[in-house]
């Protein structure tokens, strides 16, 4: 969307999102966990830094680190020489992006036009909200209150172009909120171009003819500059100087399904929940249906009288949406649940859903057995618990215990191709090898396995194939000190 | 058959391992060749073949091990090849087979890029003598039989089938298949372990190497590695259990049929360097006699004549004539091309070499050096390195290639081995240690810390030494250090032979295009008594030659190295050296050397020889410097434990300083034989890599104490030997270097401007940046003109202005500026006067070059300032061809601001690395941004032990290995340098300033040492770098 | 329990409600239906002798009772047979599950991979109560998503067997029940019951009960390992002499 050059914008800059996130975690813990408070507080106040490996620089540091002489832009080696116990966290852009989106979600309640400037900035179009809140001061009070609650450090500034607001925010040490054009121009003039979106190559060009600030730039006729920088940089410059309108894309909040139902009477038997659940699940189905979506997981909180809320998550192995599908899965799981107190309400949450693929008729037959398989697994898992439904994983390792492991069943695992595998392998392995107690005659061997020294689970074994007197074919091995063990059957 | 195996039906008492790879099959095997042969001997094998993959690089090591220790085991030379999925091993039963094998390796290697090989069908078809051991691929029986038939056509009765047994799963099936193949082709089966390790204990290391090769962690290797440790040399009784007896005895029989030994290799020098009608001896004598007339026009003394005769006799008995003649030929070429050179090394400092013009060390000046250099009893091969101007060495190399042809010439190899850092990094990666942690370890481990081993430093850095992971990490690193990594080319060691070189040793491609390398290094060549010619590059020779050229052109003063040395020791030159005014002087310009010069006060040539050798880790670590000083100054009595020792040490006041002296001491005082002394010398050169030196410790110390020397003295000698390590400095080299040190000092003293220009035009070399050299020139009152588009050429040059020689800086200083652009400008200037920037633009130089000129302020004469110049250049309109002529000159844009002095300074440093006009300290001083301090030039006037504060740009920060825990910081201001010494404790306490400061204030105590050396012992370090930012803001506000 | 066997008499099912009920429960077998069954698809076991004994092979679905001690090649036999049937499924991209319920250990992935079975299609129900195990086996068998369910249980009741048999029929899959219990469980309502024993390389199979045809004498299958047991050999003709000749040649 494009806007005229008369709109007022706010830019909110979060200089240390990731670091603040880490701090928030500590705050969360200290409030609840009194036993470790002092230790945690010490940790919280220890020098910390966020490190970006791609540039080999520290990019965010806390005050404690600052005191130790550590600065942003330092390399790791230098920083660790300055303070050896510096806590270093690797920079994760995605963390900041998520945090930014959460902040946006919270702001969305109070203001409408929000732009995400990833990874650490938010742009608000203030102009159309001014009337609503009775002027800039009122608007800013609301925004500021909202932001302070998030516990992130931030710096905000107002200006009549997105770029100008951003430049001031990145440049200042405090909030700069005003509608006064001349004040804005005054502070903007002092801002270094280095924080702007002008391309680094052009920035360097300008710096080397002595143009470092917005003021330097303003002195020169725009046409003169245009011949000397590329088009992208020129657009930025024009926006910055208020000569061209801003172009932005506004943020849309994600949709998820939440429904809470208060029961008219208390229920003590899970069986009786069924009609109520069906009702809610119908609503969910409708919600999904409108969006042409399906979901893999729903969460239901059962509010119990005088007892903590019982939260259950229900998974389906394949995306579904109809209430009938869900009710089957839920019922199976509820069979094993006993209520400790009567239920007075429940809420259903569906955070994520996926858009349904237009189904192809030719593939339908094939999909149907796949669906049968997936719904079988959903059923088994609901009844037995997920841990008892297992699949087999194969790893490249000479140690049989490592090569072959039972793992929780998941669909869509990687394909293991069957080339170069040994014949003459036992069909069933014992969960752990047992001392050999019967007389066995050796048929074949040895196959020597001496490996695993690197992970402290070394084995040295000579494997043999043997046959017991009653005809069983056994996989047995001998250790270096001549102990014999049974490890598998040739079933 | 003498060594026929004791054969009975079901037990074979002997064995020969015929397929065995050493760690010279890089990353495929995990034992040194020496370990392989030792283990094979220990297990009672009758023979072992070293069959590295398409390589002979490891076999000489195995040969030396057997020879040096007189092991009764036969070494068989061979090589393994993978060809279209089939594994073949060629063994060399005789000399012809060996040549054949070398030729095939050479062909296969030359076809492929460095480090790879490509065997061709044709190679196999041409083999007439080698035995071929065949390991059929795991493919089907049918395909293998086809293969076998093909091989049999060419190898006939020389083809054998190898059965290997590693106790892996399904191995029996494969062996039965192989038996079927052997039966159907009637091949004999040979048993083999296909050893990759000498001992099963190396399995972890081998798997670590495999992981390095695949670039994964060991855990990720999965089944792409060995299931067990059976790929090693195994006891004979065990082999009897797992192999058919017949296969074992077949191996023994085949081994017995291999008669070739590396000792058969004889090296033939190129014949063409000797005229047909003369013997080499006659020709050498004739050349020496010619040289005598040239070198000694007034005739030779009886003494020198005697020495010449003695040297010639020695050369004749050792058959070294060709070696001297070859070098003579090379230096003759250099001389004809006016390329400056200088020979050095033990044999170079002989009168014969002086007469052959290989060296310029004038024997009448330094007769004390005679006789020491060729020694028959030591039986060392003669050692002559020839240094050439670094910019022109390529011409010499091309001459050698051209004269002898590529088939007969190649560079010696250098085996690049795993060092501590590379071993730690590679092992760490295979164990899944994060790269961040590894970098942290590497950066924070001080390998020079003698007190704390790296293993314990690692635990200080947070690695739990008792954890399983740490233990295997440390043990693997320890094992990997010293393992060969790859072959690289020797810096300049040429091997030239009479016939094609590939019949003597395999030749492969080097990383540099058009270079070929043999598979043996310097030590291997020595072991086999082959000779190499060292053609090295030396920057100082370039600088000296350029200075000589300028002297001839500008002063009409012909000059040469012999000319200067003939003038005799010049007290004025030595006075300058004693003042440590030696920036840019060869070998004595480092901080350590400069702080020692005023104390040692060299006053003659031999003093310089000592000076160069004494400021080295060896003598310093062995605590030899102070005794030397005290004794020379007569403060300490000189006594010798014995007359023999006196003869060795007299010339250095009883203190061993040179490598030769240490070797000789080992012989006369500890009773080392000539051969042992030679091994000691080699161990010294490589001990950091292989740690072999410790083997000699006991022998040296007991040898000396048995002969009545004090054990403390013996310990000190051994300390010094370890200290010498890789930096060991022989007297013979020092003697040659001293000549160049003197010549450069002489030039700096008498023709400083010429010297600086010569030096600046030969950079990069030495210790100093152009900025530091130009600062030094300015302090010697030489005017420097900045780079200018109207006056500069590519090189710096001398200009004669106002009765003085001044230095006009050249375009080569400008970063990003190309020589070709410089030529365009000078060419244009020769016809037209440049008056405006548009003219320069019209020359069509690349944009980057124009920008670079503007940055360097080289357009300052055509424009108000560099901002204006650059603004004009940035505009892309006038570069359109149509407009080019219409727009002649633009008015300078008024809206641009003037660059401040600070801006100018920053630009100067960014574009040329130096500023002729400004110094940051001067600028800060004038802006009143600095606290009170003493300028470098004023320090001379302060008394000893006075409190002082200095401020300067940190131009140099060294923590030399020679001084534990001390950092030398050089602070530069516009008047000169101040030398600061920071003790470890001060540095640690003030880490921030110590590590970060670009501009540093030091408060401390001024100390005057021996010879009036001024140091400031740092107390307080204050980082003033932020003042630059203030200066920046300040300059903006006042524009 | 009444056991009714009609060998020769032909009858009309709808004429006798009791019989009708029995037939519906498949408790009666008639010789005519033997013929009909023969025309129904049977799965060849790959062993002619066994096929003959089973009247052309395994039924195309249902429950099979296998009485054997562990380690006689029992799983191998069934996997080999069922695998052939699965080829068709795999070609159409229709991956069905192999289900192991309460096995006496962990199925060995390397063994299955060597049999070209995609281990992603493997489902193991482990550490459950008998009741859960049977419920799972039943669910799997009837789901139509499984090629076969291998069930290890000591004893099963008539009713349990009946449920599983019906499930397998319904899902067109196999439920193979391994037991090492020596106790004879006669007249189980299932498709096939056999006993297996092994001696060296031979497996002896005794057919205890099958829906069609008679129990027979045991038959023997020869099932050796692929392996070679020794590589040592003692050849009389020794060719060393030839090498010595060669030596002399090369010295020339």
UniProtKB/TrEMBL annotation, chain A:
One of its GO terms (biological process) is DNA repair. Residues 38-168 form the UmuC domain. SUPFAM superfamilies: DNA/RNA polymerases. InterPro entries: DNA/RNA_pol_sf (IPR043502), SulA_CellDiv_inhibitor (IPR050356), UmuC (IPR001126). Keywords: DNA damage. Pfam families: IMS. Signal peptide: none annotated. PANTHER family: BLR3025 PROTEIN, BLR3025 PROTEIN-RELATED. This is Nucleotidyltransferase. The lineage of its organism: Bacteria, Pseudomonadati, Pseudomonadota, Gammaproteobacteria, Alteromonadales.
UniProtKB/TrEMBL annotation, chain B:
Keywords: Cytoplasm, DNA damage, DNA repair, DNA replication, DNA-directed DNA polymerase, Nucleotidyltransferase, Transferase. DNA polymerase involved in damage-induced mutagenesis and translesion synthesis (TLS). It is not the major replicative DNA polymerase. It comes from Agaribacter marinus. GO terms for biological process: DNA repair; DNA replication. SUPFAM superfamilies: PHP domain-like. The gene is dnaE2. It is found in: Cytoplasm. The keyword Cytoplasm applies. It is an enzyme of class 2 (transferase). Belongs to the DNA polymerase type-C family. DnaE2 subfamily. It catalyses: DNA(n) + a 2'-deoxyribonucleoside 5'-triphosphate = DNA(n+1) + diphosphate. HAMAP family: DNApol_error_prone. InterPro entries: DNA_pol3_alpha_NTPase_dom, DNA_pol3_finger, DnaE2, DnaE2/DnaE/PolC, DNAPol_HHH, NA-bd_OB_tRNA, PHP_dom, Pol/His_phosphatase_N. It comes from the Bacteria. GO terms for cellular component: cytoplasm. Its EC number is 2.7.7.7. Residues 16-85 form the Polymerase/histidinol phosphatase N-terminal domain. One of its GO terms (molecular function) is nucleic acid binding. This is Error-prone DNA polymerase.
């Amino acid at each position: 969307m494009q806007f005229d050059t008369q709109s007022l914008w706010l830019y909110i800059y979060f200089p240390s999102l990731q670091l603040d996130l880490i701090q928030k975690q500590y705050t969360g813990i200290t409030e609840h966990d009194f036993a470790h408070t002092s230790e945690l507080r010490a940790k919280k106040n220890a020098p910390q830094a966020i490190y970006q490996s791609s540039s080999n620089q520290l990019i965010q540091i806390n005050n404690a680190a600052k005191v130790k002489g550590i600065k942003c832009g330092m390399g790791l080696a230098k920083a660790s020489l300055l303070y050896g116990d510096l806590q270093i966290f690797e920079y994760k852009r995605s963390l900041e992006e998520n945090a930014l989106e959460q902040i946006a979600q919270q702001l969305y309640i109070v203001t409408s036009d929000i732009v995400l400037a990833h990874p650490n900035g938010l742009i608000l179009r203030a102009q159309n909200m001014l009337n609503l809140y009775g002027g800039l001061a009122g608007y800013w009070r609301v925004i500021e209150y909202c932001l302070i609650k998030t516990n992130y450090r931030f710096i905000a500034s107002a200006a009549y172009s997105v770029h100008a607001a951003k430049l001031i925010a990145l440049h200042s040490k405090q909030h700069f909120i005003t509608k006064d054009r001349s004040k804005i121009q005054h502070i903007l003039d002092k801002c270094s171009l280095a924080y702007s979106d002008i391309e680094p190559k052009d920035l360097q060009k300008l710096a080397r003819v002595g143009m470092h600030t917005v003021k330097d730039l303003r002195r020169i006729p725009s046409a003169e500059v245009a011949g000397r920088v590329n088009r992208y940089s020129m657009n930025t410059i024009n926006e910055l100087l208020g000569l061209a309108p801003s172009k932005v894309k506004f943020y849309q909040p994600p949709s998820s399904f939440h429904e809470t139902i208060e029961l008219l009477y208390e229920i003590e038997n899970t069986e009786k929940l069924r009609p109520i659940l069906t009702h809610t699940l119908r609503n969910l189905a409708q919600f999904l249906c409108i969006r042409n979506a399906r979901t893999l997981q729903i969460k239901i909180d059962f509010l119990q009288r005088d007892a903590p809320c019982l939260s259950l998550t229900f998974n389906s192995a394949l995306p579904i949406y109809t209430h009938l599908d869900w009710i089957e899965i839920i019922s199976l799981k509820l069979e094993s649940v006993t209520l400790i107190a009567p239920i007075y309400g429940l809420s259903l949450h569906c955070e994520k859903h996926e858009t349904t693929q237009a189904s192809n008729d030719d593939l339908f037959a094939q999909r149907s057995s796949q669906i049968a398989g997936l719904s079988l697994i959903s059923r088994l898992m609901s009844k037995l618990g997920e841990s008892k439904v297992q699949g087999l994983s194969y790893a490249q390792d000479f140690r049989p215990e490592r090569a072959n492991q039972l793992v929780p069943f998941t669909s869509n695992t990687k394909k293991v191709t069957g080339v170069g595998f040994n014949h003459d392998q036992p069909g069933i392995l014992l969960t752990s090898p047992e001392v050999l107690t019967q007389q066995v005659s050796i048929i074949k061997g040895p196959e020597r396995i001496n490996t695993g020294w690197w992970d402290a689970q070394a084995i040295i074994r000579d494997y043999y194939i043997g046959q017991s007197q009653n005809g069983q074919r056994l996989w047995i091995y001998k250790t270096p000190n001549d102990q014999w063990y049974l490890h598998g059957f040739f079933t | 058959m003498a060594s026929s195996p004791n054969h009975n039906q079901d037990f074979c008492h002997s064995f020969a391992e015929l397929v065995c790879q050493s760690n010279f099959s890089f990353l495929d095997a995990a034992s040194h060749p020496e370990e392989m042969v030792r283990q094979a001997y220990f297990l009672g094998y009758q023979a072992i073949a070293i069959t590295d993959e398409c390589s002979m690089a490891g076999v000489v090591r195995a040969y030396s091990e057997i020879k040096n220790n007189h092991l009764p085991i036969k070494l068989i030379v061979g090589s393994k090849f993978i060809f279209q999925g089939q594994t073949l091993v060629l063994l060399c039963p005789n000399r012809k087979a060996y040549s054949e094998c070398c030729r095939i390796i050479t062909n296969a290697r030359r076809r492929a890029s460095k480090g790879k090989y490509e065997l061709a069908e044709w190679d196999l078809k041409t083999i007439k003598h080698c035995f071929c051991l065949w390991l059929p691929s795991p493919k089907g029986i049918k395909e293998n039989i086809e293969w076998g038939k093909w091989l049999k056509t060419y190898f006939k009765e020389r083809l054998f089938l190898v059965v290997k047994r590693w106790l892996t799963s399904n191995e029996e099936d494969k062996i039965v298949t192989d038996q079927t193949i052997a039966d159907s082709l009637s091949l004999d089966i040979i048993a083999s372990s296909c050893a990759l390790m000498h001992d099963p204990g190396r399995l972890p290391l081998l798997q670590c190497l495999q992981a390095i090769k695949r670039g994964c962690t060991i855990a990720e290797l999965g089944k792409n590695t060995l299931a067990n440790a059976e790929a090693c040399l195994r006891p004979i009784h065990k082999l009897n259990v797992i192999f058919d007896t017949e296969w074992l005895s077949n191996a023994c029989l085949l081994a017995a049929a291999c008669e070739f030994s590396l000792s058969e290799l004889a090296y033939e020098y190129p014949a063409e360097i000797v005229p047909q009608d003369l013997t080499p001896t006659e020709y050498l004598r004739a050349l020496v006699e010619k040289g005598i007339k040239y070198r000694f026009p007034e005739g030779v003394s009886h003494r020198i004549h005697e020495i010449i005769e003695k040297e010639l006799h020695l050369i004749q008995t050792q058959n070294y004539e060709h070696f001297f003649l070859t070098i003579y030929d090379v230096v003759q070429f250099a001389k004809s091309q006016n390329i400056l050179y200088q020979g050095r090394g033990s044999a170079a400092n002989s009168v014969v070499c002086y007469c052959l013009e290989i060296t310029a060390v004038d024997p009448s000046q330094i007769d004390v050096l005679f006789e020491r250099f060729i020694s028959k009893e030591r039986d060392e091969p003669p050692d002559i390195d020839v240094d050439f101007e670094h910019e022109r060495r390529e011409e010499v190399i091309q001459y050698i290639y051209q004269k002898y042809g590529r088939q007969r010439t190649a560079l010696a190899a250098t085996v690049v081995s795993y060092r501590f850092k590379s071993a730690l990094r590679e092992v760490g990666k295979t164990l899944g240690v994060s790269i961040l942690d590894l970098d942290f370890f590497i950066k924070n481990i001080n390998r020079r810390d003698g007190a704390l081993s790296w293993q314990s430093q690692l635990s200080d850095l947070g690695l739990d030494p008792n954890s399983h992971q740490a233990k295997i990490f440390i043990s693997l690193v320890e094992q990997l250090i010293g393992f060969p990594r790859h072959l690289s080319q020797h810096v300049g060691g040429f091997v030239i032979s009479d016939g094609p070189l590939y019949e003597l040793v395999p030749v492969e491609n080097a990383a540099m295009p058009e270079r070929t390398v043999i598979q043996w290094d310097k030590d291997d060549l020595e072991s086999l008594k082959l000779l190499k010619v060292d053609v090295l590059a030396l920057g100082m020779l370039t600088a000296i030659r350029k200075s000589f050229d300028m002297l001839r052109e500008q002063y009409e003063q012909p000059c040469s190295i012999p000319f200067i040395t003939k003038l005799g020791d010049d007290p004025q030159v030595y006075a300058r050296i004693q003042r440590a005014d030696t920036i840019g002087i060869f070998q004595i310009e480092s901080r350590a050397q400069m702080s020692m010069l005023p104390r040692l006060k060299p006053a003659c040539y031999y003093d310089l020889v000592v000076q160069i050798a004494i400021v080295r880790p060896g003598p310093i670590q062995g605590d030899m410097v102070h005794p030397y000083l005290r004794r020379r100054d007569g403060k300490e009595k000189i006594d010798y434990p014995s007359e023999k020792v006196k003869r060795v040490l007299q010339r250095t006041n009883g203190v061993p300083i040179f490598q030769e002296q240490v070797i000789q001491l080992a012989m006369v005082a500890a009773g080392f034989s000539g051969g042992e002394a030679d091994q000691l010398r080699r161990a010294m050169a490589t001990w950091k890599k292989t740690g072999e030196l410790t083997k000699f410790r006991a022998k040296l110390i007991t040898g000396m104490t048995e002969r009545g020397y004090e054990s403390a003295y013996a310990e000190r000698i051994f300390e010094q030997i370890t200290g010498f390590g890789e930096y060991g400095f022989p007297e013979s080299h020092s003697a040659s270097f001293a000549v160049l040190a003197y010549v450069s000092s002489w030039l700096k003293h008498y023709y400083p401007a010429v010297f600086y220009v010569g030096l600046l035009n030969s950079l990069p070399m030495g210790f100093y940046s152009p900025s530091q050299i130009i600062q030094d020139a300015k302090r010697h009152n030489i005017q420097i003109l900045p780079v200018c588009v109207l006056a500069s050429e590519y090189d710096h040059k001398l200009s004669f202005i106002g009765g003085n020689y001044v230095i006009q800086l050249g375009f080569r200083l400008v970063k990003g500026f190309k020589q070709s652009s410089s030529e365009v400008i000078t060419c244009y200037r020769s016809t037209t006067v440049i008056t405006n920037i548009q003219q320069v633009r019209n020359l069509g130089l690349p944009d980057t070059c124009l920008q670079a000129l503007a940055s360097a302020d080289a357009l300052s004469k055509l424009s108000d300032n560099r901002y204006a110049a650059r603004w004009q250049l940035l505009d892309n309109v006038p570069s359109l061809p149509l407009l080019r002529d219409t727009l002649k000159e633009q008015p300078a844009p008024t809206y641009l601001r003037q660059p401040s002095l600070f801006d100018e300074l920053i630009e100067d440093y960014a574009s040329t690395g130096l500023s002729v006009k400004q110094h940051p300290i001067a600028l800060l001083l004038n802006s009143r941004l600095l606290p009170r301090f003493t300028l470098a030039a004023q320090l001379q006037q302060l008394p000893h032990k006075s409190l002082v504060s200095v401020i300067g740009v940190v131009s140099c920060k060294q923590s030399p290995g020679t001084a534990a825990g001390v950092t030398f910081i050089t602070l530069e201001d516009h008047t000169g340098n101040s030398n600061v010494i920071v003790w470890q404790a001060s540095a640690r306490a003030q880490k921030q300033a110590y590590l970060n400061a670009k501009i540093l204030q030091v408060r401390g105590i001024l100390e005057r040492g021996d010879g009036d050396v001024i140091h400031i012992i740092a107390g307080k370090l204050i980082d003033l770098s932020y003042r630059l930012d203030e200066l920046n803001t300040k300059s903006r506000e006042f524009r | 329990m009444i056991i009714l066997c009609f060998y020769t008499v032909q009858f009309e099912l709808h004429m006798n409600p009791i019989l009708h009920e029995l037939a519906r429960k498949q408790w009666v077998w008639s010789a005519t239906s033997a013929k009909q069954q023969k025309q129904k698809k049977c799965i060849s076991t790959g062993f002619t002798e066994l096929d003959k004994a089973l009247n052309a092979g395994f039924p195309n679905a249902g429950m099979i009772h296998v009485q054997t001690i562990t380690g006689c090649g029992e799983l191998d036999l069934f996997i080999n047979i069922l695998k052939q049937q699965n080829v068709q499924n795999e070609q159409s991209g229709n991956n069905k599950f192999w289900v192991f319920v309460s096995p006496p250990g962990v199925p060995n992935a390397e063994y299955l991979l060597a049999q070209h079975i995609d281990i992603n299609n493997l489902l193991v129900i482990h550490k459950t109560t008998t009741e859960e195990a049977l419920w799972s086996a039943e669910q799997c068998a009837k789901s139509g998503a499984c090629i076969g369910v291998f069930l290890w249980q000591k004893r099963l009741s008539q009713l349990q067997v009946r449920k599983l048999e019906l499930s397998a029929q319904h899902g067109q899959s196999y439920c193979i029940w391994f037991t090492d219990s020596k106790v004879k469980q006669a007249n189980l309502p299932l498709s096939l019951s056999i006993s297996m024993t092994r001696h060296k390389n031979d497996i002896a199979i005794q057919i205890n009960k099958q829906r069609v045809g008679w129990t027979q004498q045991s038959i023997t299958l020869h099932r050796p390992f692929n392996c070679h047991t020794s590589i040592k050999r003692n050849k009389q003709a020794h060719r060393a002499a030839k090498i010595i000749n060669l030596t002399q040649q090369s010295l020339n």
